[in-house]
Amino acid sequence: MLxxxxxxxIVTGIYALLTxxxxxxxxxxxxxxxxxxxxxxxxxxxxxLLTLSGHSIALGFVxxxxxxxxxxxxxxxxxxxxxxxxxxxxxxxxxxxxxxVIVSEDWLTRGTQGLxxxxxxxxxxxxxxxxxxxxxxxxxxxxxxxxxxxxxxYSPFGRLIEAIxxxxxxxxxxxxxxxxxxxxxxxxxxxxxxxxxALYAHYITYVVPDQFVPLVTFYVWMAMILGGVxxxxxxxxxxxxxxxxxxxxxxxxxxxxxxxxxxxxxVRIFLIGVGLVLFVLLRPQGVMGLRVRT
Amino acid sequence: xxxSLFYLNLVMNGLVQGLVIGLAALALTLVFxxxxxxxxxxxxxxxxxxxxxxGVQALNVRSVIVQGAAAIxxxxxxxxxxxWFVLRYLRGRGLVSLLLASIGLALATRGxxxxxxxxxxxxxxxxxxxxxxxxxxxxxxxxLWLAVASLVCVTATFAMLFLTPVGRRMRAIADNxxxxxxxxxxMQRVMIPLWAxxxxxxxVAGMILGIKTVVLPEAGWHILLPAFAAxxxxxxxxxxxxxxxxxxxxxxxxxxxxxxxxxxKIALSFIVLAVILTVRPQGLFGSAEVVR
Amino acid sequence: xxxxxxxxxxxxxxxxxxxxxxxLDVSDDEIVTVAGTNGAGKSTIVKATMGLTPRCAGTMTFGxxxxxxxxxxxxxxxxxxxxxxxxxxFMTLTILENLKVVECVSDFTARCAEMFDLFPILATRRHAxxxxxxxxxxxxxxxxxxLMPRPKLIALDEPTAALSPALVAQVFDIITQLPKMxxxxxxxxxxxxxxxxxxxxxxxxxxxxxxxxxxxxxxxxDARMAELYLGREDEPSVDTGTP
Amino acid sequence: xxxxxxxxxxxxxxxxxxxALMRTQGAGAAExxxxxxxxxxxGAGSPYGSSMQKAILFAVKExxxxxxxxxxxxxxxxxxxxxxxxxxxxxxxxxxEVNKVRAVLGTWASxxxxxxxxxxxxxxxIHTTVAGTSGLAAVNKKGFAFRFxxxxxGIGRSLADGALEEGFKRASIMAFNxxxxxxxxxxAKSVLQKAGREIVAEVIYEPNQPSYRSEIQAALAKQPEVLxxxxxxxxxxxxxxxxxxxxxxxxxxxxAWAVTPKSIEALGAATDGVLLADYESALGSDAYASxxxxxxxxxxxxxxxxxxASCAYDMAMTLALGMEAAGAGADNAAIVKxxxxxxxxxxxxxxxxxxxxxxxxxxxxxxYEGASGPLDxxxxxxxxxxxxxxxxxxxxxxxxxxxxx
Lengths: 294, 292, 243, 405
Known about the structure:
The structure holds four protein chains of four kinds. By secondary structure, chain A is mainly α. Chain A has helices spanning 2-28, 36-52, 57-81, 84-104, 106-109, 126-154, 156-166, 168-174, 178-204, 214-227, 232-255, 261-282. Chain B has a single domain (2-279), classed as ABC transporter involved in vitamin B12 uptake, BtuC. Chain B contains ten helices and two strands. Chain B has helices at residues 3-35, 42-58, 64-85, 95-117, 141-163, 165-175, 177-182, 187-212, 224-233, 239-279, and strands at residues 132-134, 137-139. Chain B is globular, with a radius of gyration of 19 Å. By secondary structure, chain D is of the alpha/beta class. Chain D folds into two domains: 32-151 and 287-346, Rossmann fold (3-Layer(aba) Sandwich); 152-282 and 386-403, Response regulator (Rossmann fold), CATH 3.40.50. Chain D is globular, with a radius of gyration of 21 Å. The termini of chain D are far apart. Classes of the chains: A mainly alpha, B mainly alpha, C alpha/beta, D alpha/beta. Chains A and B meet through helix 4, helix 10 and helix 12 of A and helix 4, helix 9 and helix 10 of B.
């Protein structure tokens, strides 16, 4: 039971990291990023490939962050020119391009075969020690990311971001450069998503392009909306509710004799959809949200 | 097969693919024009249409017309329902709220559908007919019919938009929602016909997709991304643009396959999109006006 | 008889009030100008009257009917017409369609003919897209569109913004005709001097509040007023197009 | 309790979150042997997954009706792996940690099998799969994993062998772009190359396309006589229809799982002559016919074309017979050893649990011949690959020949 709980917590932590990053993009800056899973995939594959070719896990993590952040650069530049509705779909496309590149370049990524046996850190601690240590690592990454985001958000840079979000034209006339700020926010958020990817790869130990579909992005959006747009604690609560929703249905089914998993799979999709609709309708500010910003 | 004929056949394949994408993009762009959001439920609406057709077939009705009518009816009712019970309340709440709500509607629709129909594939029992070979170019009978159906759909949409009072109101709302309200146009009276039309297009598109492929709960969802690309490329909210862009993307995608292979062709529509948006941020057929 | 009456109205977006404590009325056959500097909240008053601001409090009646119970799209049915400052026509519709799309027009053909009589330039280009019109023509179309359902009052939001001086005169000329047709006029203008010159009464708005009101001639004659709000007579007004 | 047990048997779904409660209720009777059914109910494997899960539940129902195995009844905790590693890992952890299962039956996708295998291996849990990936051997350290289907590579070789036996000289290969499809392509290629046959085109295609015409055009450009397809059901159905509609004169060799009577019926007479490669005794064997008929009566599901449902049924059967042979209270290592013994020669061939149980009780050796094939696992836990070729004729699937691979 403990090990299952830890597994759930680790997955929640990874989603929380993704949600924080998205919240930084959208909640703080108003950037509509529907390609989050792309950064996640880049992080996962970067770290998996490096460690599988014998490099240290630490290097894998750093490279995952850096590469994911760099990949946000061209996208960010394009984003500066585009209206928000275009951006939503361009980012969606970006993630799809990332996935297709991973599928196609099998000399590097082994394509649809996936990368198996991605090393787990803390192997010397034994099976349960390893899990607990990994949870510690996930928590540490979350705390660091939260600290970074909070620092950026409450710095002069953060106030600039708030100002940009509220009135872009006014800021440009004040002589600051929203373009640069936007780009930096985009890259920092992407880097955090890349870190989440690395954590994911080394936990699941197997990465394959099928894991990086748009649905993951939608899940993260759900978590953000559930927790509250623009709220850092909300990122954690949202991720927790999301995982509870995804995993909880397994237990609901266990308690309902006569309901088969086959039907439950449909019920699960249905409940997630209805939950999303109800939240948007009834509580757009999320559990922790203070301001309505949709 | 000689060289040029090979490419000509690829163009042909692209046209057929593009028609399917273009129809989905037409449904997307209609919603976008009037309600200002990318409707992620479009794909699953199409799926419902295909299953409605299958349902009629299961009653031993072989007429594709009757099946199609059932698909149109089912999709229209569902689309109006989605508007009436959910989307109506989100007016003015911005793109993200509406997009997320439509993703929720998409998942809920698929979940409810697969609960009842299961995960097994269904097939339309359309007879297999040999193609016409015109100067080496293979023209399939079924594709001709699909093209006709698409054309009827597009024509009907345009007739509605440009020849009827309700279409005029839709265009007015799409053009300037605030002025439309000040001109006394009641949203509800436009939105119900709009969603009925969106449903009808999705019904036809779903039937076409179902006849060309197999009917599975996730079938429509997979067409959504290329349709999004076509909608954006066509200039958001531009119906002609959406259909033309859909066909264009289909043709470019298939023509590219000898050079980039069959995997990259999936990403190609987005790469084309990114390149074109770098040059023309308002899309191929979008006007340069900046909304907002 | 008072047609439109606003009592202690406040309106705005989100948490922010743009205007507050507004008391304003317009009677039959009257031209009333609301003048004020850029950003004073002039447009917000008109939008609130039309039901187009997200938030609005206070009392608003039109012909004795409580406006706040009526959604924006129903106010036209009471006889309220509106010409916004920017985007005041449907650019992608033809001229004829711009007129046709307006609701509650009885006897469209006759009314349309009247409009074409009033604005001959529109008649010659009835099948052209509105986007093909010049600024002045567009303003005429906007007014024609607002007049279609025979409103009792039309509210014009800076009707002469971004027009050349010659066209400004032409537009004001059209406006002065309106009371003769039984239409009261509420104009929001930055060109306060010219606007007041054709008005019966005026209100001066500053930072979201009415600071002065009275007969237009009195306002024009007031020296303090002239210095603070009306600008020098020969000074061309600059408009950035933001509310 | 009896009533309760009966309800449980009927649904065969058990409140796994309340194992403690179940135990107290079951005081006096032996504790049930908990089994996980981890199948691809949604996602890419969904055309196969739900029938697999139902087949496992059906098998367990039969086993329990015969009085259980090794003195215990079986309880199934069913999960959806969503054909994706992450939900699969979480489901696997839940099955192991919360539900305390001792065996997990029925993973399908290679990615899923590779992701969950280390978890099961570490926990000493018996894992039966149909995943065709060759990577499975590396994670099967304890030897508790069984593969109830041929490797994808092996299926690929059988497809090519079928083409050779039929005397085709020029072949094109098309394959679905996933691990399985690619391995099938490699398998087919190796056989054709060894035989010195010409491969005129290799096409790897992406799933979920509205049309595969350009892919088909590329495969047919140099006029092959035969198309060897490393496909699954939905994509093959579309491709078959498009090729037949294009009027191209080409034959097909396809895996049997990618065709169903329904798809043959829908495509009509044009499917005549399509060759299917499959396990030697999967179709036409008594075990298969009997299972198919019983399952149809019980669940209303026609498993024709879903080879994996037969595999899933056999998984439960093999496990239960292994439990029976290992005796009451045996640990997993003993059960695994017994599973090897009861599924291969020597021994009396049986195809039903009740008969097998009787024979084991009377001290005889048995050889379970499954609905999916003879099984006969090798040391690595792989079912013995014997393939045969079938042919579609007048809308029916007929035996054609055994492949001597």
